[in-house]
Q: What sequence folds into this?
């Protein structure tokens, strides 16, 4: 019994989290419904599941919460542009969801530049031409905003934990400290110590940071209403930066044995190195594929999870458009599957954080290991 | 395509936020947390070690106590034995002394009795002598008529009287 108790507890936890995340998914899907209906009235556009899903998964310049009739309920976010030697700072509300241009910029909702801000030039005949040089867009987008929120959240969380460690010096952990201590110890003992070896200590801060950053952002991404819901860890820019950090650290801490192993791998026949440096090239490519794979894995896993849940929701409206009764009928199945996926996503949130951290630790371990050939 | 195209803006903000997060957490969270965890682990390790040591010491203490107790018992036994011996010796001595005294007293009593007896005999002799002289006087007064008789009598009397 005792052996299974932690498993039971963690299962219950996942169930609770899953239910929490599944209910707002429903709410969101209804919002989507009304939005699409309003679109249908205005533009006569049929429900496009692919478009809806991609719009939910990608970044945006404003935080769309709901559409009631013709009113879009959004949180406008700051737009920061650098174009032709000048900075432009204004609210994304000025674009009116892409309907208006402002200060010579337009947020494109169609075409090649869809979702991007372009500089435009008004022609005398009332048309607009898109200028070829795109402005440098440093806007606080939905993902950037969510990222900052979660960064602040994580900082506050762990600073408060650090405080309680100082307060509880030498005593058993308390409150939120005891909730997260097993994870901290897990990262330290089972990831850092196990993969890196005796000099693991200088890597634990980074490993702990990426683990909790990915884990908490994954979980926040599963919460479909305002503070969560942004697909932060499912954004390629975010995962690219994370992987880049791992790559840079690996490259900088790499010792002689590591570089020797890459350029002159011991135990490999000489004709694989000279005159055609086959093995060094393969090894060198490996240096870059490792972080690349890290980036793609996290991005693909998290985005896929979001897409599948949104896909189940879309089914309701695709069938609902055929006949309202079919929509209701399919909704039972869709919701059941979405709840199941939500649970699975909670698990994936932890697993992906673990995998990213573990692989980073293994790369650090490889870079600092003393080879004895 | 939009999905897999990294945006410059987000890369910039991500690098900035994550870099800051890494810096802040490393300096103000992970360092103290790791230190405290290590401290706690060390203190637990130490406490366990101490407990082991205390147990060992306890065992030793117990052994020492037992030894001390045994020693004390032995000493007590020895003291008791000595005391018994001394007591017996004292009794023996007292008995001897008493018997010696008794003998001495007996001896002196005997002596005294003997002396008394001698004195009594002497007194008796003197008394007898006196009586004899008295008798002799009276006899003399009667028989002093004839001198030769007197002499014969005196000679006879003297020969009869033996001094004891």
A:
């Amino acid at each position: 019994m005792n052996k299974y108790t932690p498993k039971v507890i963690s299962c219950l936890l996942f169930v609770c989290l899953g239910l929490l995340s599944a209910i707002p998914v429903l709410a969101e899907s209804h919002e989507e419904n009304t939005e699409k209906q309003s679109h249908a009235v205005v533009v006569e556009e049929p429900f496009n599941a692919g478009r809806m899903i991609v719009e939910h998964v990608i970044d945006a310049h404003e935080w769309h919460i709901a559409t009631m009739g013709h009113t879009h309920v959004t949180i406008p976010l700051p737009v920061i542009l650098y174009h032709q030697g000048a900075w432009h700072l204004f609210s994304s509300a000025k674009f009116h969801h892409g309907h208006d241009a402002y200060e010579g910029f337009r947020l494109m909702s169609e075409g090649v530049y869809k979702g991007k801000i372009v500089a435009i030039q008004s022609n005398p005949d009332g048309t607009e031409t898109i200028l070829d040089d795109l402005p440098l867009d440093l806007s606080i987008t939905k993902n950037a905003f969510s990222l900052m929120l979660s960064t602040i959240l994580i900082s506050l969380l762990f600073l408060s934990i650090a405080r309680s460690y100082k307060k509880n010096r030498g005593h058993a952990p308390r409150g939120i400290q005891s909730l997260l201590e097993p994870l901290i110890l897990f990262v330290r003992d089972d990831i850092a110590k196990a993969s890196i070896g005796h000099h693991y200590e200088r890597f634990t801060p980074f490993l702990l940071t990426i683990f909790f950053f990915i884990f908490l952002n994954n979980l926040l991404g599963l919460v479909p209403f305002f503070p969560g819901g942004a697909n932060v860890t499912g954004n390629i820019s975010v995962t690219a930066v994370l992987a880049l950090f791992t790559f840079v650290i690996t490259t900088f801490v790499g010792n002689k044995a590591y570089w020797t192993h890459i350029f002159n791998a011991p135990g490999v026949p000489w004709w694989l190195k000279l005159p055609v440096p086959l093995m060094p090239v393969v090894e060198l490519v490996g240096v870059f594929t490792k972080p690349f794979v890290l980036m793609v894995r996290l991005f693909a896993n998290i985005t896929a999870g979001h897409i599948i849940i949104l896909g189940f929701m879309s089914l309701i409206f695709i069938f609902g458009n055929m006949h309202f009764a079919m929509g209701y009928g399919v909704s039972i199945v869709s919701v059941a599957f979405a709840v199941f996926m939500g649970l699975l996503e909670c698990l994936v949130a932890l697993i992906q954080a673990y995998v990213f951290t573990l692989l980073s630790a293994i790369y650090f371990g490889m870079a600092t290991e003393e080879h004895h050939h | 395509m939009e999905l897999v195209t990294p945006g410059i803006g987000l890369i910039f903000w991500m690098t900035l936020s994550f870099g800051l997060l890494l810096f802040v957490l490393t300096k103000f969270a992970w360092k103290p947390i790791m230190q405290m965890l290590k401290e706690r682990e060390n203190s637990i390790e130490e406490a366990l070690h101490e407990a082991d040591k205390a147990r060992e010491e306890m065992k030793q203490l117990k052994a020492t106590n037992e030894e001390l107790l045994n020693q004390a018992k032995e000493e007590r036994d020895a003291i008791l034995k000595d005391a018994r011996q001394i007591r017996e010796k004292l009794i023996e001595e007292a008995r001897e002394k008493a018997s010696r005294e008794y003998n001495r007293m007996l001896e002196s009593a005997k002596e005294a009795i003997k002396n008394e007896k001698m004195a009594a005999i002497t007194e008796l002799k003197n008394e007898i002598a006196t009586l004899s002289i008295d008798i002799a006087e009276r006899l003399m007064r009667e028989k002093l008529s004839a001198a030769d008789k007197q002499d014969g009598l005196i000679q006879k009397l003297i020969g009869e009287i033996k001094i004891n």
The first strand of chain A starts at residue 62 and ends at 68. The first helix of chain A runs from residue 5 to 43.
